[in-house]
Each structure stands twice: as C-alpha cells, then as structure tokens.
Amino acid sequence: MSTELSRLLNALGLIAIGAILTMAFIDQVWFGELPCPLCILQRAGLIAAGCGIALNIVFGPKPSHYGVAIIGAIASAAISMRQILQHIVPGTGFYGPPVWGLHLYTWAFLFAVAIVLGCGLMLLGDRQFSQVQPISGRLKGLPFIALLLFLVLTLANVFSTLALCGTGLCPDEPVDYELFELND
Question: Gene3D superfamilies annotated for this entry (predicted)?
C-alpha cells in the first residue's frame, strides 16, 4: 500500500468518524436527545481515535498514530459496553430511542470495534511506513475536507459539552443546557 493510498483511506476513516459525530449532533440538536455523561465520553473516545487518524493524514502514516487511534477506539468501546451492560438487564430501561433497532451506545460500540479492525488492517500494509514523505505544501481534496470536518466537529463537541455541563459535573439525565439556564 502506498503512502497516498494510506492517506486516502485514513481520510475516508476520518470522514466516517465525522459522520458518526454528525449523527450524534443531529440527534442532540434536532431531536433534543441530550447526551448523558457516558455518551459524551464515547464521543471523546471517537475524537481521540480521530486524532490518531488525523495524524496519519497530516504527518504521514506511522504505527504510533494507528496506536493512538486504537487506544481511543478501545476507550470508546469500553465506555459503550459499560452503557450496554447497564441497560441490558430487563426492567432497567434504556437511554434514547433506538435507531434501526439498536441504541446509539450499541452503534458506538460496533463502530469503535470497526475502527480497531480497520487500524489493524492498515497496520498490515508495511510499505506505507517506508515511503513516508512529508506533505509538500497544503493538503488538498478529500484529506483536507476530512480534517476540516473533524476539526469543526471536535470544537462543536467541546462547546456542546461545556454548554451542557457548565463548570460542574454533567447531569446523569440532562434536560437542559446548564450554561444557558437563567434561573439559579
């Protein structure tokens, strides 16, 4: 696998992470389903995984960058699994409506596992590491779009979390944005 093909595949992976974060925002803003603390941590894990993939795009593919992505995805998967197990017992309820039969935390688990598998497969392409050349000039095309989308969504997640939690702990079952509450 060439370095350019690796960058393209990493850009597609980063766009996939951006799509998941976008869907989470649509659920949050359009449908009013505010994220619970575990949901916020799952997003943070996906953002950490995205940072590893973004490093591959900007600086060229390196095993350590894939390592960052794998660690972020494993963190997201562990948090998702905790939430799945929390709601798997009959009568405990669930958080948020199902999408195509599965709740968002189950989808987050499956997507995190897919990131780990994807990074594992990418690590099998040894040639991408021997040909690494720094990007000459600016990023263009799909890698640039992927990085821009990821940066915007990361900043939006930071702002959203600050708005939701304020300066304190995030509420277990949020009903409103703490930052915008007018009554004390």
Answer: DsbB-like (1.20.1550.10)
